[in-house]
Amino acid sequence: MQATTLVPRTADLFNQGLELKTGAALLRFGAARQHPSDRISWTGHGAVAWLDGSRGHMWSVGEPDAAAGLVLRAALGRPDQVREFTGPRGTEALTGRLLPVTDVVEWVFRWTLEEPPVQRAEERVVVLDESHHEELLAFLNIHSPAHSTGPGSADVSLWAGIRDPDGRLVACGALSSLRDSGAPLMASVATDASQRGQGLGAALTSWLTRYAVRRYGFCTLWQLADNAPAERLYTRLGFRNEDPCVSARFVAP
Q: In sequence order, what are the residues at sequence separation of 6 or more whose Cβ sits closer than 8 angstroms to the Cβ of residue 150?
């Protein structure tokens, strides 16, 4: 593993040109170029990292070996602040050689700059406001209990849904944002289990993607690595698949 020297907290995450390389979209879209006054960040040879202090979550981008070096230095130097991390695939194994990790989840950070092809049933999508939050929460609790974002989240700018002819909610999804940069992040897309196979998830995902691209110029999302149906859908809608990531937590002493 590469030896890495931690630099002051004013480190410029963009001084290596990593954001221009394949596999570094999380840096390009996820870290604001304007340096927040309270952001703690590090750079090394072949990797950069920054800390979401409110969550105790460290983000790293670059070569796995170099990224793991930054994660380890930060975790050992700030054990009360660095409780979990996301990095390029392989970071968890390298980090785990020195510090035990748990709850390992493999993800893909996906993104697109293009509007997707129009999907069947896309015209049925409607915007949902605060008056629908209770309905949305009940729907998500039944059809997507592990949803990443819920109604009322401060990061969400838009909820959208699809209803059946009787007015019952049968699909929903949100546009949230990456905390540091504010980049649009699709989240909590869910479909009624009894309605699956009708293209409702594709319609909602396409509609949200189109909305984000028109308003912000791009759209991002997280996809679980072992979710084959989502893999096929996102690929069909034009989302790039170049950024395999892994997240994990450090085992509390």
A: 136, 137, 140, 188
Provide the CATH number for the domain formed by 114-217 in this structure.
3.40.630.30
Look at residue 124 and give its three-state secondary structure.
Answer: helix
Q: What is the pLDDT of residue 148?
A: 82
Burial 174-210 (b: 16+ CB within 10 A, else e): bbbbbbbbebbbbbbbbbbeebeebbbbbbbbbbbbb
CA dist 197 and 202 (Å) reads 10
Q: Which residues, listed in sequence order, are joined to residue 85 by a DSSP beta bridge?
A: 58, 248
Q: Which amino acid is at 70?
A: L
Q: For residue 10, what pLDDT is reported?
A: 52
The amino acid that residue 25 corresponds to is A
Residues 145-201 pLDDT 10s? 988 889 989 999 999 999 999 999 999 999 999 988 999 999 999 999 898 888 999
Whose CA is closest to 174, among 150, 195, 191? Answer: 150
The domain ranges of the chain are 18-108+245-250, 114-217
